[in-house]
Specification:
This protein is α/β, with parallel strands linked by helices. It folds into three domains: 2-111, Aconitase, domain 4; 118-170, Gyrase A, domain 2; 197-259, no CATH class. It is built from seven helices and eleven strands. The chain has helices at 24-27, 47-50, 96-105, 122-130, 134-145, 170-183, 213-231; strands spanning 2-5, 8-11, 13-16, 80-84, 109-111, 118-120, 153-159, 163-168, 197-201, 235-247, 252-259. The strands form four sheets. It has a three-stranded parallel sheet, with no helix packed on it. The longest helix has 19 residues, at 213-231. The protein is globular and about 60 Å long.
């Protein structure tokens, strides 16, 4: 199959998953979000469906119990470049790892009858608690929601087995362009930390050992976390041990304890 979008041609096998409401947790479960990498997630795509056993970060598919009945484990669909799905694909919580997992598996395009903006499983939760049909509960909730003037909501739908799906007005995103242009570099800043203090300690290299690449990485992460806190109004103290000179021949070391940088 070939798909054309803005001149991009995709030639490859089409895999299909005949389900509605495939959410991001089904695309890649939360336990794999611990990785700070942006690649290497192909073995975790649709983890709960591709395997019979429970996996964890770092385990490859060759070490797992493969579910031979799942479509993407079958030849030739294990080399699919296009994925075909039904309503509300990609609903649920926002996670970039879901996109990375699809990409790393080799999926170049997803074709679905609709893509979710925001999805809630509250119908399933209420139905389970009250021992009622989740679809009935979801429709009752929908009826109550429709009695209110919900801003920036284009439509709300219910799909099996009890998901409530919210679709955002295009104008909501379009209006934000003006907000971004007006606030410029201040866009996204908040005062959530106003009047609060935060101490961030990072790097903390061993005074008697060498600096490593890991220390450099932690310096970047620690400084980034500090900047985010400052951006949100916190009074931040950065604390770390910085090795600035070492005389290897005499084993003399000079360190500076830096605070309030």
């Amino acid at each position: 199959m070939k798909s054309n979008s803005d001149g991009l041609m995709i030639d490859g096998i089409v895999g299909y998953i005949d389900r509605d409401n495939i959410d991001t947790d089904q695309i890649i479960p939360t336990e794999y979000l611990k990785s700070i990498k942006k690649f290497g997630f192909e073995d975790y795509l649709f983890d709960g469906w591709r395997y019979h056993d429970d996996g964890r970060l770092g385990i490859k598919k060759e070490e797992r119990e493969i579910n031979e009945d799942f479509i993407l484990n079958k030849t030739p669909f294990n080399e699919s470049k296009i994925l075909l799905a039904r309503d509300n694909f990609g609903c649920g919580s926002s996670r970039e790892h879901a996109v990375w997992a699809l990409r790393d598996f080799g999926i170049k395009a997803v074709i679905a009858s609709s893509f979710g903006d925001i999805s809630s499983n509250v119908g399933l939760l209420v139905g389970s608690g009250l021992k009622k049909n989740p679809m009935t509960c979801a429709h009752q909730i929908l009826d109550e929601l429709n009695k209110n003037d919900l801003k920036n909501i284009k439509s709300i739908t219910v799909t099996k087995p009890g998901f409530i799906n919210f679709f955002i007005e295009d104008s909501f995103y379009q209006n934000y362009i003006g907000t971004i242009n007006s606030l410029k570099s201040k866009f996204g800043r908040s005062s959530i930390g106003k009047g609060k203090k935060a101490n961030v300690e990072f790097v903390s290299a061993n005074p008697t050992g060498p600096l490593t690449v890991g220390h450099g990485r932690n310096a970047v992460i620690g400084d980034t976390v500090s900047n985010i806190l400052v951006w949100n109004g916190f009074d931040v103290t950065r604390e770390f041990t910085q090795k600035i000179w070492q005389d290897c021949s005499s084993h003399k070391f000079l360190y500076v304890l830096s605070k309030n940088i």
